[in-house]
Amino acid sequence: MANMCPYGRFTHAVVRGIPETFGKAVGDSRKNGETSVELAKAQRQFGCLTGALRQKVGLQLIEIPPDPELPESWRIEDVAVIQGDTALITRPFKQQRRSEAEAVRKVVSELNLTVVEMGAEEGDSGGATLEGSDVLFTGREFFVGISSHTNHRGAEVLADTFRDFAVSTVPVCGGARLRNICSMGGPNTIIISNSDGAKKTLRMMEQLTDHHYEVLTVPEDSAANCIYIKGPSKHDFLLHRPAEECPDSASAFQKLQDYTLLPTACSEASKLGASLSSLCLLVNRKHTYF
Amino acid sequence: MTTEVGSETEVKEKAEESAAETDQSEKASEEAPEVTAAEGEEKEKDGKEGKGIARYLPTWLKKQKSQTSPTKEELTTRESDSKDAQEEDGPVPEVNGHAEEENEAVKSDQVKEKEAESHSTASADTEPAKEEKVEESAEKSPEETAVTEEGEGAEEEKKEQEGEGEAQGEEGGGEEGHTSIFQSPLRLVRKNKMKQAVCLVTLLDGTDFTCEVEKRAKGQFLFFKVCEHLNLMEKDYFGLAYIDSHEQKCWLDPTKEIKRQIRSNNWQFAFNVKFYPPDPSLLTEDITRYLLCLQLREDVASGRLPCSFVTHALLGSYTLQAEAGDYEPDQPRPLDNVGQLTFAPNQNKEMEEKILELHKSHRGMTPALADIQFLENAKKLSMYGVDLHHAKDSEGVDIMLGVCANGLLVYKDRLRINRFAWPKILKISYKRNNFYIKIRPGETEQFESTVGFKLQNHRSAKRLWKVCVENHSFFRLNAPEPPAKARFLTLGSKFRYSGRTQAQTRVASSLIDRPEPCFERTASKRSSRSLDGAPRISITEATSENGRDPHLDLLSDSKSPNRVHGDNIYVRHSNLMLEDHDKTTDEVLKHQASISQLKRSFMEAPPPSPPQPNQWEKRLTSSPAPTIRIQQQQQVSLEEEIASVLLSRHSGYCSAPPACCTPEPTLDADLTPGSTSTLAATEESAPQLEDVSAAENLISETKEPAKTAEVEIEETVVVQEVSIAPKPGLVSVTSPQEVAVEKEVVVTVETKEAKQESVSSESESEEEAEYHPNVSVSICHTQIPEEEEEEEEEKEEEKGVSVPDGPSLPAEVEEEEIEKKKNVEEEVEAKSNNDPITTQATNGHTLPEESGLAPEEEEEEEEEEEEEELKMNGEASVVEAEPRPLVICCSEPPVVKTEMVTISDTFAAQKTEIATKEVPIVHTETKTITYEAAQLDGNGDGEPGVLMTAQTITSESLCTTTTTHITKTLKGGLSETRIEKRIVITGDCDIDHDQALAQAIKEAKEQHPDMSVTRVVVHKETELAEED
Q1: What is the pTM of this model?
Q2: What is the rounded CA–CA span in Å between residue A200 and residue A173?
Q3: ipTM
């Protein structure tokens, strides 16, 4: 397919800074606010992540300034699904997050991506919710986790947007998000957590796919979210949680041969249910047609 | 129904065609139809009264005809009517074949359908072999004299045939020429002329094709007419569709009368792609790809095949390139041109601009290449080849069921919500408007489950069911399934897929040997600039004289060396839907024809009188050579040493009755002839061997570079030689040697299939047994019909019998057995990964310790092997007794002295009844020599892979014991089969170990001609017995 090339080639990363309101989620999740998050630490970790993406991996980084009005805007992954030269601006589950899309929309159009909207609240896609952290693109197909934040209608919109690809829905257990329990670890490798819920999801993925993926299981949920990028010189980079955060999984990553492993801390964001990949949108502006 | 007959005759036709075609090309006539037609007409006149159609009817048909014709003339049944009519009307061989079957059917009218079906399926199994045979006969090897005759007259006949075809195309029947012999048929036909119907077939390019068929004609008659009109040979991917009385699109069943299917007397059909090849690049001919492109363009434009904006644009640009040629900047208003074409359901200016933009980048691309690119992109679309059916799930929710090459997909509003791959489906059935699939239990489940869907009505349920049956058969089976077996489908109608499977059609395609037919792309009439004189892609070699695209030449170059040197390897074709790995498969398949020819001619060639050095030896000596030489030396020294009782005797053999102490002289006497005959055989077959291994080398060489997505099969042969000196004093020299021959060849096995040339299990006979091209492709080995295997096995057996055995050998075997088999054990066995035949051949010999790895195939037992089994029971352990690591890679193997006590202890329990005194076991000298081929790298060790199957088979016959360990690993998308053979040669000092070793290696190679040896480990063990 025109857009079908092995997973992992990216040229740009879009991130959004951590606002001062970090951790002060709006709405009923006041209790969550009590989980002590350290703003400074989160910002430091964010800095490490972006630094790794830019300097180690060599991506062009586009950083959208933080907006204190949007305490969750740093979870930029949620607001768009980008594949090839198409960006689908999603409709997050939380009403108050939907305005986060504006800045992202601007950036992706500047990147010359074809911007696709979810459509009006009413109409065909009415009631559809979709968040990028429930979408796993493997290079060959999409898996959409049906979770508390993403529903079938949202997945349908995704399928309608990316018509070249099979879009399969998989269940996500325990309030998690699909990307919390799995991520791509290579063009053909899925890293997935060893938890029961993840296993269930994996079984479904295996059942639904026409392709064969290598599976790297890691004992901890949080370790399953990594960022894989094939660098300019075809070198494999994997950003993963450091051993301090996921002691049991560190050895698993060693199995990935010839990878440059970039341990990247993400403890603060993960306290809020986010993960490494939540913090960035990856774009490939260099796709070829052949 | 006419599968087998059809393809056989078709192949014949092809053979003839090639002859004719070369002839034509000599005349430098670019196969303009008129020319041939004229030629044909001339010929026809010449010999018309006398011969007529009968000349190109297959001989068997002639015979049958002459037998039955008196009866037939009186028969006024519909059957004979239609039969004759078809014979008349159909110069197409398939139709002849069809008619022939009907001939049979006439005999027993009631069981007509049944018989016809069973007939075809019974022989379908052996079809590949038949095809080979046919090919052979085309080469004038006197298999059937009649056929040879045909082959000789092939040119002539071909011309006639073409002429006939042409004439018929024009006159819509042209039977008049053949009155003399076929009077009665003709009469009947004339009568039937009243009952002709005019069919209107809409072709893929939008044009209509009209033809008259007899009203009673079956679907395939019309289909063949259309294919003939299109000049299409790879026709199995296509079908005729009609709209039934309920406005539903249905596939015309080729085996049934058209009239009964269409109902409304509306003789309108559409020629469509029925099975979308998962990898169109494997199609042999451009014309096939072109037709597939036409279908896909329509699918895309109509929205049936959804794709994104970019993909629409890209596909559109390739369409434009193929149809309009290069982008012309000075073309006044290119957009107008584009606007006339429909590329997408919601085509807009933006898309057209994008199409034009991309079109510019395709400059210089030939139409054929543009088609290929189109298909390469289209095939990756997730809905490519998915046939959607509306349904409701058990809860009444609207869903879509998609049938495709891989299985059954369940969609809900574009979202894939479930998928049932064919291997997971045990049964498909329908009842009223319900459609059921029975699912194989998963790893975690215990019971099979049945999933039900509701369709709109009974008819749609049946239609879906039929589509499933056909798709499963086509993509998944080796040969169409016999209805009687009904393993896969039990309920419902008797309907089965009757055409060729993808596997079969690929084989057939690989035999297509005609120049690429000229065809015009619809739009290319408008601007044929780039079509004219543009190089065309030639897949078949026959086209090499055509101007070829240089870079495509490169592609084909990678193949031609193989052919030139004649890789003498039987590559078992894999016919799974190998999306990524198919390429090789097909390439390899293409060689198959030439390979088998070579092989055959080779077999026919007289063996050179001087014994030639074994190819293996050559290889050894040429590379890490010293191995064998060293062995020889060792051997000598070993023989000088005193040895006591052979270990293996202790273990395996000692369980035999006390009679074991048979007089030694007998043994020796027996031994010698045994070994000599072996040697003789070796000599005789040496040339073959050479050929084989040369070919193997070749294959690995040539394939290596083109390693796109190939599966590597590795074979390891371990030969172990044990010498026994069966002296009364129980002193013997044992020099066990182990030779591991690992072959590695790139063969195209995606998952499970490797069709194996099987050799009968007697070692001596095997040596002379022919390479019998039993194509047995097991796609999904759980679904291999047992009967097929049995038949094939039987055939082999026959072959084996015909081969002269070493005269004294059979007797020897028995003797040896009685004498507790002390002396030389020679082993043979045809083993290959998952090959059903060979697996069975060796079943039951799995080593205990490795039995966990035994594959499912073991269930499929075969009686034929039983006698062998008897011999081997209890002996398998001998082999098992050598779990030595194959260690050292060097030319100077270190000599390690070890005690073999462990082993003997292991089997101490068995040696209860040794008649003589306890045998002392002393030293053992063990030498391990490893030879590794250079290309071993990356195979095997340490690589993460998924073990698919592993099996161990042990068998032994005369003087060798072989343990075959088959391991399958899946690395990424590649499946690798690695066969490790451990061959134990047991013999006393009199044995020429070199010879035995060479022999063993040779046999191993013969058994796995499609593999290459990557490693040889010679492990020589000598027992230095201390006499007390």
Answers
A1: 0.53
A2: 8
A3: 0.90
